[in-house]
Amino acid sequence: MKALVLTQHGDLDQLHIDTDKPQPQARPGHVVVRVGASSFNYHDVFTVQGMPGIKVPLPVIPGLDLAGTVAELGDNVTKWRIGDRVLVNPLKPGVGLMGEMTDGGMAEYALVDEKQLIAIPDGVSFEQAAALPVAYGTAHRMLITHNTIKAGDKVLILGASGGVGTACVVLAKHLGAEVIACAGSDEKAAALKALGADEVVNYREQDFSRWAINKYGKPQRRTHEGGVDVVINFTGGDTWRPSLKCLKRGGTLLVCGATAGYDPQEDLRYVWSFELNIKGSNSFYEENLTALLEMVAREQIVPLIDRILPLEEAAEGLRLIRDREVLGKVIVKP
User: Of residues 262 and 278, which shows the higher confidence score?
Assistant: First the structure.
């Protein structure tokens, strides 16, 4: 079978297409999925580069998110049938993430534990399903499972043009929030506006925190006026302190990652004097993915897909994500 293979850590040139990769064989409790679509996440960039303290068994096929059709059943698999359309939860029980600790979705076939399978409802395409797990699952848990956003809230989203960011825009609008989307170019800002964001900020041209204060007023300790209700910040780095400064009294800072640095400058004075809530959210669970599939099936949300590429161009798709040249998800079809 064809597969995108990472042979050693480094730059994206360490990825290559293997046209003669052995097709996985079903084993007890597992199925072989014929991949219909797979998608990249920024996590795949870290996997290629190598992460301190995480030993990835190489060579490995990257790609955390995948959807497809059950092609082969292992012994003791009774719930699923050949031909079933399934989304795969990337977390393999007792092993870790597919595409990192075991082969992932950037191939024609994938070996999957039956516990990872979720039925895809009618009306949901493989491309839509493959867009969901890491990005939309993370956003769904952060916004909906933790009940952090209500109708009418002013929600400022940093990194709004990426996978998790666009998912937050889509879900926050679904919840009835007023969304301020921050992106690094006028083109991305315009696209986020078209996606449904109420306000957009090009953070390369203006300070997002100052913009929010100018727009909504300086946060007041005694009157609770001014500022935004929620800041979604999974970038960290030098965006952390400005995020605190534009939150209203009692506001919430949501965090599910730190793509720009995990050890930012802090200012505890804002945290205590404005009684701010710092809410962390980690990963996602099957309940999040099931709920998202139903939302797509009911046309309540539409996952934003930037482009669909063939497997032969998968490495270029990951480059686009690394260099932040996409809006939403990059889908790969084998």
Answer: 278
Q: What's residue 212's pLDDT?
A: 98
**Which amino acid is it at 157?**
I
- Going by C-alpha positions, the residue among 281, 286, 302, 293 that lies closest to residue 173 is 302
Q: What b/e sequence results for 224-257 when a residue is b if at least 16 CB atoms lie within 10 Å of its CB, and e otherwise?
A: eebbbbbbbbbbbeebbebbbbbbbbebbbbbbb
Pair type for strands 96-97 and 91-92: antiparallel
CB of 278 closer than 8 Å to CB of 301: no
Q: Which of 127, 55, 63 is nearest to 90 (CA)?
A: 63
| Structure confidence by residue, pLDDT tens digits, 42-78 | 999 999 999 888 899 999 999 999 999 999 999 999 9
pLDDT at 93 over 90: no
Residue 276's alpha-carbon distances to 31, 154, 271, in angstroms, are 47, 15, 5
Residue 181 vs residues 60, 169, 228, 331: alpha-carbon distances, Å: 35, 7, 12, 23
* Tokens 């920024």 belong to residue: 42
Tell if the pTM clears 0.90, that is, is over it: yes
Token pair recorded at residue 82: 């050949």
Helix (H) or strand (E) holding 224: none
pLDDT in tens, 213-252: 999 999 999 988 999 999 999 999 999 999 999 999 999 9
